[in-house]
């Protein structure tokens, strides 16, 4: 995999998220309380809520608009809600956040 | 014929290499050993017991003069190497050159020093070798003060050692809890508590700004303005591989000296080992992997095949009385699950991290007996599917016939203490149950178990469930959320009675079942803590709903609305101009007058918020908190100022109330209205608090509603004095802040506690009223300030934009 340095871990608050703009749309990069990072599309499948603004708890995030809960590791909605969000490989190395460079690729023209 | 081996650095890694070499092939190498320190190899990890006085230096020496002599090692201690000449294969110290056939670099790490002003003052030391340790011991007079910068493993060991020598110790740590790289917040909280019990102060989220002093270090100044006096300052903020020699010699160096699986550098005759190396992009800071490297180095030197493969490492803190263990990987891989166990009574916390039915990480605090067993499961990547339910209870509960999660409670002996407050053991509870106590209340009445602080309620219920089986019906009270067994009311009570002052503290002491809570409990806990401990607790932004975190209301398309305060509904041409200018400048798609007598700018982009706030601040406006569980608006009518029916200055009173109460956080939002006469043009009688002005003064009524529920206010008090009117309303708000459950509007809360009780507290009992008003003021000393102004600071603005824009990179 080709990794891309997108910023310092310290740029994201613990239990928070920041947004990265990519050719595939906005991607939310989450940081958990124990400094793991996860990336997934910043669009709730319910009504498009910005997941990056949700409350992060454990490895889950709650959508800020209507409280759907998503697992950061799988992107799947929890509980009774059905659906999911695309996740993207991300990791931390030496205090830097690395994101899968595949996100750079332009969406294939329709 | 023996070859000439030169070794740079007599540390733990190279010491192990030499042992293997002399054992496997005595006489194969003629060794010259340089060391920067004026001594040979000792067990560096035992410096902490030397510092604390529990061991002497002599006890931690691993290779003495006799050992070096027996193996013919040419020892050059206290003689640092200054240059490697690869072309001619000579290593130089200031005393001259020594030729080599093979060279081993084992220079370890250098402590990292934050270059703040004053870092070079005498009295500032690092913690790496015996000289540092002796410098600390020399400074450690009982009663003297030490500041340790860095709350990681090294810093805490230094702090504990100095405290044992009688010093007053403060640890400054940048992150939210100590040892954040090895511990999650819950275990970090327990560790912090244990260290504080040893008299060590731990200042988290503290950034060092400068070390103060003229001839030597005298104090440490933090960014937040705190100053700690210091007779000695220990910097223990991290290490970086000592690669200077390798760099100068043009070997391949990344963060460390790059080596192959055979531990060979980019020069085939030069090997490297220990903390100075980088293998497969990874650095190493614990001895276990270094010992594996040492074995490979010896094999490579003897031309035997071998390859270094890093394995998992485990950490233990060597501080007497702080039992903690952390192993495996807590970083950066998806698909993980947690199993959490807490026993608040014993201060035990255990967390296991699973992936694909395998254990990959473990954090244990308070009871680390099973650490090695978990570590074994991690290293062996054992499939734990079959023992998953009881895994957290350790090896004692595996492999038996019945796999029952209740087994742990069932297995407790009768003398095991369940209720710490009242000293009630399991046997006594079982006896009470057998004699007919089948409800929690009955058990409480008979045994006093869980009747004081209540934190063992869950355990008592488990004992009842084990004893009664299906006959046990759990208490009906709704717990706060699925993360815990306590009601909101219990949690509020316990936060006060147990003096819990952080979210991890609450979660640990009250037995939270999840690692980080959920979106329902975290905002509630954050509110309860800041309401009860306004001066000590620091608001946790990440535990707030988006609107309160971003100080604006999120809209359905992800933009925000901005509502500046208009005190009592009053505005000025200048304010209106500033609002109009802001609407133009930031392309605001909709400007609307709200139902709360002010103006809403809707559709603002998140990254524009700080700049817009700065513009509004410039014109003298502050946040209207239209997003908060806090004071929203005080709606007023024109009153005596202009109206021919007005009886009092209702506008003026509304402005006073709003200026007095703004910024305070409340369990739910609070809206007020002040009307100048009973015609009630300010709709005061359907607000949370309403005032109707009459000839004789002010009639205060409370607990109205005009949202999903519509309800008229109820009469609370009448007074002739405007000052008393404000005092009563302030006391009412503070009582609401202190006793309502999160997300109950005042009308709901009053219905639960009863208006009569509220009246006695805020109207009749003058002393209670005064105390409530005073506590409100204490809280307002922190919270009566404009959050916009803080976030609009230039230094804060980048945090409001994107982290990165990859579409630009793609275009390049
Ligand atoms: C802007 C405004 C409507 C307007 O255009 O006038 C408004 C807009 C919203 N109201 Fe309201 N309420 C507004 C006055 C009211 C009023 C009338 C009043 O304040 O005099 C009420 C009835 C009184 C009351 O508070 O109960 C009102 C009862 C509600 C409720 C129901 C509360 C309840 O306990 O039943 C909610 C939902 C909630 O808070 O949970 C709500 C929630 C909301 C939210 C925050 C919904 C949301 O979560 O996104 C809306 C945010 C829009 C935004 O971005 O600004 N709004 N809302 C008014 C702002 C007043 C202000 O200046 O601060
Ligand atoms: C206080 C303390 C507590 C620790 N506790 C633990 C623990 O509990 N568990 C654990 O696993 N690890 C612990 N460690 C870490 C462990 O000590 C190191 O990982 C280990 O010592 C590294 O071994 P090394 O041989 O690479 O380097 P070192 O042991 O540091 O040896 C390097 C040597 O090289 C010398 N040197 C450097 N440059 C030159 C030069 N140019 N010329 C000549 N000589 C030079 C240095 O003077 C030093 O003596 C602790 C460390 C400290 C300081
Ligand atoms: S009544 Fe309030 S919450 Fe409902 S749509 Fe209008 S502004 Fe939004
Ligand atoms: S948009 Fe996310 S829950 Fe509705």
From TrEMBL, chain A:
| PROSITE patterns tied to this protein | RIESKE (PS51296)
Q: Start and end of every Rieske domain?
A: 4-99
Q: Which domain of life is it from?
A: Bacteria
Keyword Iron in annotation: yes
* Listed Gene3D superfamilies: Rieske [2Fe-2S] iron-sulphur domain
Q: InterPro entries from the xrefs? A: Rieske-like_NirD, Rieske_2Fe-2S, Rieske_2Fe-2S_sf
**Keywords annotated in UniProt:** 2Fe-2S, Iron, Iron-sulfur, Metal-binding, Nitrate assimilation, Oxidoreductase
Pfam families this protein is in? Rieske
The entry lists its GO molecular-function terms as: 2 iron, 2 sulfur cluster binding; metal ion binding; nitrite reductase [NAD(P)H] activity
Kindly list the biological process annotations in GO that this record carries: nitrate assimilation
Q: What is this protein called?
A: Nitrite reductase small subunit NirD
Native source organism of the sequence: Fertoeibacter niger
Could you read off the lineage of the organism from its UniProt record? Bacteria, Pseudomonadati, Pseudomonadota, Alphaproteobacteria, Rhodobacterales
TrEMBL record, chain B:
Which residue intervals define the domain FAD/NAD(P)-binding in the entry?
A: 4-281
Molecular function as annotated in GO:
2 iron, 2 sulfur cluster binding; 4 iron, 4 sulfur cluster binding; flavin adenine dinucleotide binding; heme binding; metal ion binding; NADP binding; nitrite reductase activity
Keyword terms of this UniProt record: 2Fe-2S, 4Fe-4S, FAD, Flavoprotein, Heme, Iron, Iron-sulfur, Metal-binding, Nitrate assimilation, Oxidoreductase
Q: How is the cofactor bound?
A: Binds 1 [4Fe-4S] cluster per subunit. Binds 1 siroheme per subunit.
Q: Which residues form the NADH-rubredoxin oxidoreductase C-terminal domain?
A: 314-380
Cofactors required: [2Fe-2S] cluster; FAD; [4Fe-4S] cluster; siroheme
Outline the extent of the Nitrite/sulphite reductase 4Fe-4S domain: 629-766
Please list the residues that bind siroheme.
681
| Positions bound to [4Fe-4S] cluster | 637, 643, 677, 681
Q: Does the keyword Iron-sulfur apply?
A: yes
Against PROSITE patterns, the record matches this protein to: NIR_SIR
Q: Does the keyword Nucleotide-binding apply?
A: no
Family membership, please give it: Belongs to the nitrite and sulfite reductase 4Fe-4S domain family.
Q: What is the name of the protein in this document? A: NAD(P)/FAD-dependent oxidoreductase
Stretches assigned to the BFD-like [2Fe-2S]-binding domain: 418-465, 480-529
Q: What is the lineage of its organism?
A: Bacteria, Pseudomonadati, Pseudomonadota, Alphaproteobacteria, Rhodobacterales
The source's superkingdom equals Bacteria
Instruction: Share an example GO biological-process annotation for this protein.
Output: nitrate assimilation
The Nitrite/Sulfite reductase ferredoxin-like domain, residue ranges: 555-619
Pathway it works in: Nitrogen metabolism; nitrate reduction (assimilation)
